[in-house]
Amino acid sequence: MANDNTGKRGRGPTDPTRRQRITLAAIAVVAEGGVAAVTHRAVAATAGVPLGSTTYHFATLDDLLAAALRTAAEHNVAKLREWERSLAPGADLATALADLVTYALTDDRAQTVVEYELYVAALHRPRLRAASTAWDNAVTELFAARTDPNTGRLLAAAFCGLLMQALLADPPPTREELTAFFRRSLHGTSPAPNRVDPRLSGVTTTRAILLLCGSLRSGSTNAALLRTARALAPAGFAAVAYDGMGALPHFNPDDDHDRPHPAVVDLRTRIDRAAAILICTPEYAGALPGAFKNLLDWTVGGVEIGNKPTAWINVSASGTRAADAHASLRKVLEYTGATIVEDACAHLPVHGSTIDDEGLVADQKVRDGVVTSLAVLAAAVS
């Protein structure tokens, strides 16, 4: 007789969502009792899984909290990106930011508290710091897209700090007070409410090098290399990470029309805004990873990448040097019309043991190679 498992959640290898359920359960425990309430047993009970499942997927509480922090950060950044996309061209950014803080303090207060609980936990848990730093960088890059890199960093610090203070304040700041604060942050002593968005005018003080990672793994050496590149960007350039690969739909030419999926629009917009592109991808089963090939497929139908200075850094430490994946990468880029900057392409093997607690590559030889590649790539920008 066939087993009927309809309506039952799988167990063991037949339950591919269990790790994510455990992560979400950890967030729920934080929401209920704070970080101090998180134990493997409490999370297992909330997730409805055996205690052994939590220790199987997350050997330590720091592993579990780091996963929860990454998930909370991804949720927060996704909300911010949706907010940014919803802004009308020429919108008053100070007022929009004030409304965003007001929403976070009222309708979304519970989620905001959870996010900050996990963020602050990184102060005493070094293993969480890479995730919190990545969160900071993502928020900075999003605000920089509406202003410029320096203003984006200022706004991110002001936004996050003000939100934390406002969570504790009684009464919280009014919308008018928040608007005035952000207006001063944006324009100094001059209100200038009608300042033109640099992105709309075409005037920017810093050009962007878009960083494309071919791996979705949180512990990827490719991601570590690109985080390092972001910290070593040459003068006049900001290295900006793209982290939307997991949100892209499966490529289908029938869906590549005048109104493609929002994630595709976001990808193409980021490529269009960038002055150059730096790629770092692993090899999987002798080829490009499927998710990254999917990303590249979505660039073929667009025109944004055409003639864009593009290079890659290969971090493979294997005997094959990921040669097949990079041969495939070259072929696909040629189809897209990207300009491959040969002298900026490099093979810089990265071993996991050389990645520090901040998720950056500590090997000085590799760092020097990254600086060289970035300089050559930047020089190719007309």
Explain the overall architecture.
The protein has 382 residues and is α/β, with parallel strands linked by helices. It has 3 domains: 44 residues, Orthogonal Bundle (Arc Repressor Mutant, subunit A), CATH 1.10.10; 123 residues, Tetracycline Repressor, domain 2 (Orthogonal Bundle); 174 residues, Flavodoxin domain (Rossmann fold). The protein has 15 helices and 6 strands. Strands 1, 2, 3, 4, 5 and 6 form a 6-stranded parallel beta sheet that branches. Helix 11 links the parallel strand 1 and strand 2. Helix 1 packs across helix 4 and helix 2 packs across helix 3. The longest helix has 26 residues. It is globular and about 60 Å long. The N terminus is likely disordered.
Keywords:
single chain, 382 residues, alpha/beta, Arc Repressor Mutant, subunit A, Tetracycline Repressor, domain 2, Rossmann fold, 15 helices
Layout of helices and strands, plus pairs?
Elements: H1 18-33, H2 40-47, H3 51-57, H4 61-86, H5 93-105, H6 109-121, H7 129-146, H8 149-168, H9 175-187, H10 198-201, E1 207-213, H11 221-231, E2 237-242, H12 262-273, E3 276-280, H13 290-300, E4 309-314, H14 323-336, E5 339-340, E6 346-347, H15 364-379
Parallel strand pairs: 1-2, 1-3, 3-4, 4-5, 4-6
Helix pairs in contact: 1-2, 1-4, 1-6, 2-3, 4-6, 4-7, 5-8, 5-9, 7-8, 13-14
